[in-house]
Design a protein that fits this description.
single chain, 2 strands, mainly alpha, two-stranded antiparallel sheet
Length: 98
């Protein structure tokens, strides 16, 4: 009985909705396909991360430019909008986040 339980745990889940997953052996071809799918997911994640990083750098530079204008800073203070999240301030002013 213990041997049978150990054998059932080897492989990948063969999931079904609302059912207890049944585990089955995985072939080399299936393993390669799964690996390629995961690698593609990682490539997409890296692309999204690079895009987000570029967009963040653009926003940081835009905020820096706006804050360098005295009129804009005065307007923010007058409207009570002269604070920003600590992480953003750290990037804008180049200080460490504490």
């Amino acid at each position: 009985m213990l041997d049978q339980r150990m054998r059932q745990r080897k492989g990948v889940p063969d999931g079904g909705l609302g059912k207890r997953p049944v585990r089955r052996r995985i072939s080399a071809t299936e393993m390669m396909r799964l690996f390629q799918q995961e690698a593609e997911k990682q490539r997409v994640l890296v692309k999204k991360s690079d895009f987000t990083q570029a967009r963040l750098l653009f926003v940081i530079e835009a905020v820096k430019d706006l804050l360098s204008e005295d009129g804009f800073s005065t307007l923010l203070r007058a409207e009570g909008l002269d604070t920003m999240p600590r992480a953003l301030a750290a990037r804008v002013y180049g200080k460490a986040v504490s």
